[in-house]
Amino acid sequence: MRHQSASSLDHLSESELTAQLEPELLPKHVAVIMDGNGRWAELRGLPRIAGHREGINSVREMISQCLKLGIRILTIYAFSQENWNRPPQEINALMGLLEYYLSTERASLIEQGVRFQAIGRMELLPPSAQHWVRTTEQETAHLDKMVLNVALSYGGRAEIVDAVRELLVDVRNGSIEAEQIDQAFFQQYLYMYPLPDPDLLIRTSGETRISNFLLWQMAYTELCFTPTLWPDFRRREFLLALLEYQKRERRFGRVLSSMPS
Ligand code: IPE
Ligand code: IPE
Ligand code: MG
């Protein structure tokens, strides 16, 4: 069953696809590079922001699908450090959309039991966007059905540099010794600690690169690239990605005979 190709799944309905999922093989943490909004809009003769706006509906569907399936951590790449190099008009529109999303969607996140966390260099966001990020974090901090991490003004290299800076402060003030620093210790300084690393990364829009996302955390993440543009990535596409993930054999460098059963 698990080894069906994607094309043999084409005729299956959403509920038939869901029935094929094996709960014990679901990822615990899914990360998504939500790409292709601009192209989605351009294909329709619309301004790029129309694609970003439509992409919010895909985010909503991902959250409800994760809740339904019991996937408890979802991390989405909403704005990269490099995206600050886009035209000011697009940046302003994206920040406006972020504020709109947080101010209008907060109630629904709370109702669904979703804890919202932002990761990235928040201090670079406009003050009003920072306000909504903080408010949403505070108002959802006690919720535990699922965690939604939103990467904003995020760069994977910047995250590692920020961790090193904090670590150096602790070494300098004598609260830790350099000899204490190993991989497990270092991880405590990363933005998402103590959440586990993503099991599955999905990137939409056909690009097959990481674009500076979660560089440390993705050491052994399974990568799934799909040509579907983000605003078209809905429940069915997500189910297909999960079925693809279930076919993967995660070896973590070992050979099969030495894998814990
Ligand atoms: C992804 O869509 C969203 C952000 C980077 C903010 P894009 O805006 O990159 O869309 P394309 O890749 O140009 O189609
Ligand atoms: C990655 O998409 C960042 C987000 C989805 C937020 P980009 O569209 O910015 O990435 P590149 O420029 O194609 O690598
Ligand atoms: Mg893009």
Structure description:
By secondary structure, the protein is an alpha/beta fold. It has a domain at 26-155 and 197-246: Undecaprenyl pyrophosphate synthetase. It is built from eight helices and six strands. The chain has helices at residues 14-20, 37-43, 48-69, 88-112, 127-140, 156-172, 183-187, 235-247; strands at residues 29-33, 73-80, 114-119, 146-154, 200-203, 222-225. The protein has a six-stranded parallel β-sheet, with helices on both faces. Helix 5 (127-140) links the parallel strand 3 (114-119) and strand 4 (146-154). The longest helix has 25 residues, at 88-112. It starts with 13 loop residues before the first helix and ends in a 14-residue tail after the last helix. The mean pLDDT is 95.
